[in-house]
Amino acid sequence: MSMVDLNDEQLLRYSRQILLPDVDLEGQQRLASSRVLILGMGGLGSPVAMYLAGAGVGQLVLVDPDTVETSNLHRQLLHNTATLGQPKVDSARAALAARNPDPEIITFAHKLDDMALREQVQLADVVVDGSDNFACRVAVNQVCVDTRTPLVYGAVVGLEGQASVFRADLEDSPCYNCLYSDLDQTIEGEHQRSAFENCSGQGVLGPVAGIVGCIQATETLKILLGLGDTLQGRLLLLDARSMNFRSFRLARDPSCKVCGVAHAGE
Ligand SMILES: [Zn+2]
């Protein structure tokens, strides 16, 4: 990772962040040299992209095949009434550039095929999953395990959310698929699994998506900075109806079809 020099305007822009002993000038330079792949420019991807752009992450790769629709606007803060009908990645690019001209924004207005996904995951320091469907999550998890790339997971449905961090780059870290073999052991796990498998088209309270997206943005910055303890090895559950957060230990499943096999040959 090559370090970049910061000019006076940048020192001022990021001053409140650089003031943090955990960040400092070195951390800011690290962010400027980092690349994050964000899948989905919706209710989760909006706060993720806005905060990472604001924080001065050097390269943001945005992927979303959809265009902005009226029904998106109650929760997808990157987009607005004037950008209705535009590809979400174009609407996002304009909003992010207005927030901070520093990050290089790379966009894909289509679903990445397997080879392109693999290439983009390999180039990224962290992958953020802000997608709304199970098939995409499973595919992304597989590539992150294969390439040992950190994955920041989030999902939201109704007034409930969940988040975790899967560190395939670390020994013995669970993956997204382990989460399901783990959860399936309990009745509550069953509920979580069926509710969160496919959030597409279901009702959601806008700010609940915002909370989960902000958690994903925070965890991404922590991974890039090597700061604190992330949600690695834990699943965080939010019930906004009672406004309770709980977190469960999440162990790697040795027989996991995804990470079990990947690690077995080593
Ligand atoms: Zn696994």
Structure write-up:
By secondary structure, the protein is of the alpha/beta class. It has one domain: NAD(P)-binding Rossmann-like Domain (Rossmann fold, 3-Layer(aba) Sandwich), CATH 3.40.50.720. 41% of the residues lie in helices and 18% in strands. It has helices spanning 8-13, 15-18, 24-32, 45-55, 88-99, 114-123, 134-147, 176-183, 187-196, 206-225, 259-264, and strands spanning 35-39, 59-63, 104-108, 126-129, 150-157, 160-167, 234-239, 244-249. An 8-stranded mixed β-sheet has the order 3-2-1-4-5-6-7-8, sandwiched between helices. The longest helix is centred in the C-terminal third of the chain and has 20 residues, at 206-225. It is globular. The chain binds zinc ion (ZN). Zinc ion binds at residues 174-175, 177-178, 253, 256, 258-259. Zinc ion is lined by residues 174-175, 177-178, 253, 256, 258-259.
Short description:
This protein has helices at residues 8-13, 15-18, 24-32, 45-55, 88-99, 114-123, 134-147, 176-183, 187-196, 206-225, 259-264, and strands at residues 35-39, 59-63, 104-108, 126-129, 150-157, 160-167, 234-239, 244-249. The chain has 266 residues and is of the alpha/beta class.
Instruction: Give the CA-CA distance, first to last residue.
Output: 26 Å
Radius of gyration from CA coordinates: 18 Å
* Mean pLDDT over all positions: 92
CATH class: Alpha Beta
Q: So what's the oligomer here?
A: single chain
Helical/strand content category: alpha/beta
User: What level of helicity do the residues show?
Assistant: 40-55%
If you consult CATH, what is the topology?
Answer: Rossmann fold
Bound ions, cofactors and other small molecules, one mention each: zinc ion
